[in-house]
Amino acid sequence: GFVSVLDLEAEPHPKEIFYRHVGKASITALAISDEPAVLIAVPAGRIPVEFSLDTQKQCLCLKRDLAHEQNWDCYAVALSADAQHTAFGGNGGTVYLKDFLHGHARAFRTGLELIRQLVFLPDKSRLIAVGPKSIEFWSIRPTQLCYRWDSPHGRILSIRNFEIEREDTWSYQLFIALEE
Predict the structure, then answer these.
(1) Could you give the dihedral angle defined by the CA atoms of residues 129, 89, 142 and 135, in that order, rounded to the nearest 10 degrees?
(2) Residue 13 CA: distances (Å) to CA of 7, 17, 33, 85, 149
(3) pLDDT tens-digit series, residues 68-97
(4) Is residue 175 over pLDDT 60?
(5) 114 contacts: CB under 8 Å, gap ≥ 6
(6) Residue 61 contacts residue 15 (beta carbons within 8 Å)
């Protein structure tokens, strides 16, 4: 799999500013932050790879933390808005939450059989884990389940969260794509 980043504001047309071969496997998930400029790519069945877009340096995100894991595949990755935390999720419902200040990851088990998508809420203190038919809302300090929503309508395909302003107040809305 390969990763490419385009600068859409370059003149006279978009310009490729980053291109990297990550591995033989296809890329199953990507996450990016702008400050600091970090890109994380997840090759299928491999350890996630982190790139600094400023220095082009590469490192394996969870190499030490996954040394004991033999059968864990990463399918989802999310960066917090301030790039201080990264969450990785995959089969078995395990989430690895990496703290960039301390450089270590802590694992916690969700009630999901598979993590398909992870999303940090804009408040940086909560994480959403999406499974095939359920969504779990987690506090990251301390790590605890806040709420679980089971879809009565079918399989969850994808979610997106948005900040919406209404009459001088902000609210967070979660949009869910379902397959019946």
Answers:
(1) 10
(2) 9, 12, 23, 33, 44
(3) 565 678 889 998 877 788 899 988 898 999
(4) yes
(5) 75, 90, 91, 92, 93, 131, 132
(6) no
49, with CB counted inside 10 A (0-12, 13-18, 19+), is buried
- Region 161-179: mean pLDDT is 69
Q: Which pLDDT tens digit goes with each residue over 45-73?
A: 777 888 888 888 887 777 666 645 656 78
Side chain identity, residue 1: G
CA distance 158 to 179: 10
- Answer yes or no: is pLDDT of 21 > 80: yes
Q: What is the length of the chain?
A: 180
Contact call for residues 129 and 118 (beta carbons, < 8 A)? yes
Cα–Cα separations (whole angstroms), residue 167 to 115, 122, 164, 170, 173:
36, 19, 10, 8, 15
Q: Measured between alpha carbons, how far is 177 from 154 in angstroms, rounded to an integer?
A: 10
Q: In whole angstroms, how far apart are CA 4 and each of 17, 29, 31, 51, 56?
A: 8, 13, 13, 12, 12
**Listed residue (150, 164, 76, 157) closest to 120, CA to CA:** 76
Q: Which of 90, 113, 89, 87 is nearest to 100 (CA)?
A: 87
